[in-house]
Amino acid sequence: MTTVAAYAAPAAKAPLERTTIERRPVGEFDILIDIKFAGICHSDIHQAREGWGEAIFPMVPGHEIAGIVSEVGPGVTKYTVGDRVGVGCLVDSCRECDNCKAGLEQYCTGGSVGTYNAIGKDGEPTYGGYAQKIVVDENFAVRIPDGLALDVAAPLLCAGITTYSPLKRWNAGPGKKVAILGMGGLGHMGVKIAHALGAEVTVLSQSLRKKDDGLKLGADHYYATSDERTFQDLRGSFDLILSTVSAPLDFNAYLSLLKSEGALVNVGAPEEPISLNLFSVIGGGKTLAGSMIGGIAETQEMLDFCAEHGFGAEIEVIPAEEINDAYERVLTSDVRYRFVIDTATI
Predict the structure, then answer these.
(1) Which residues form the Enoyl reductase (ER) domain (predicted)?
(2) Can you give the pLDDT at residue 5?
């Protein structure tokens, strides 16, 4: 076992504090990663505060991990010491179900294992990336291309794949009109990726406060959803709307912005149930769907795509002592656009 420094929530809604955790020994197919940067995802806050249900404490959040391989097990073939790697939201799955065999480990029916707030196959809780090191099976790490700095790459392990996967699945590209709902940690990556895929991109945000940023990142249009005229002017406009918002929405209003047979896909996960008039989807044959991260192979594809197009996340690097302040700032949308922890400060 290896003892490493980490930041953990000792209980639900409690401030995170510096502590130590034990990492398992490096097994035959494991790699030990010296974590260099860890992104702060809104999911971390939901789980540390039990917004999505009962959780496991103490909790070390963090599933946007970028670092350097410092040790490999004797059976490892994919990585060597010194490789630049990342770990996202999963550290294991059953590997045997149809979804796992199809590269959809995120939908594993036999029991996927989250990077934190989960129980591993050894029966022990998993601890995430707000730590100095992590041990992970080589099959659940991905290679970070040389063209991506580790700090801007870290958020891609969740925010990048969470937006890339549905944009690819619903064929965002030339000739398609795509709206990104929300201009935050997920939304700003959605804008970059949809633009790079060749779609005509519109941002739908509560206000015009971030309009200049949105246009700079690749949006063609930017509208405020607080303005009722937006819903009149854009009615029937979009092939695809990607919602990155984690608050309850008037889905009937947003579905009205779709073309016939268009899709509204949710990657934001509100804590509260939603209400829906089914005629909003029946009329026009529209789709209301959801998407959750992506498989390991698709995550690698996303990283390579971002490197090819020369972008990572827009970040603010912080020392570990500012994690709790960062949580509060995320909740008030006071970040452009992803906090990243310099784990050397843990």
Answers:
(1) 14-341
(2) 98
Model pLDDT for residues 116-164, shown as the tens digit of each residue = 999 999 999 999 999 999 999 999 999 999 999 999 999 999 999 999 9
303-324 pLDDT per residue, tens: 999 999 999 999 999 999 999 9
Tell me the Cα Rg of the chain.
20
Query: Phi and psi of 55, rounded to 5°?
Result: -130, 175
For residue 30, the cross-strand partners are 137
Look up the CATH number of domain 160-290. Answer: 3.40.50.720
Instruction: List the domain boundaries for the chain.
Output: 2-157+294-345, 160-290
Q: Which ranges constitute the DSSP H helices of the chain?
A: 42-48, 98-101, 150-153, 159-169, 187-197, 211-217, 228-233, 251-255, 279-282, 296-309, 323-331
Which amino acid, residue 232? Answer: Q
Give domain 2-157+294-345's CATH superfamily. Answer: Medium-chain alcohol dehydrogenases, catalytic domain (3.90.180.10)
**Of residues 93, 42, 92, the one with CA closest to residue 64:** 42
> Side by side, which strands form the sheet with 177-181?
221-224, 200-205, 177-181, 238-243, 258-266, 287-290
CA distances from 59 to 3, 8, 17, 53 (A): 16, 5, 10, 14
Structure confidence by residue, pLDDT tens digits, 1-52? 899 999 999 999 999 999 999 999 999 999 999 999 999 999 999 999 999 9
- 165: its two tokens: 């996967």
**Residue ranges with strand state E in the chain:** 2-8, 17-23, 30-39, 65-72, 84-87, 90-92, 113-114, 133-137, 142-143, 177-181, 200-205, 221-224, 238-243, 258-266, 287-290, 315-318, 338-342
Task: Write down the pTM of the prediction.
Answer: 0.95
Q: 155: burial class by Cβ within 10 Å (0-12, 13-18, 19+)? A: buried
* Four-point Cα dihedral 30, 78, 71, 43, nearest 10: -60
Q: Cα(196)–Cα(229) distance, rounded to whole angstroms? A: 29
Calpha distance 255→58 (Å, rounded): 40
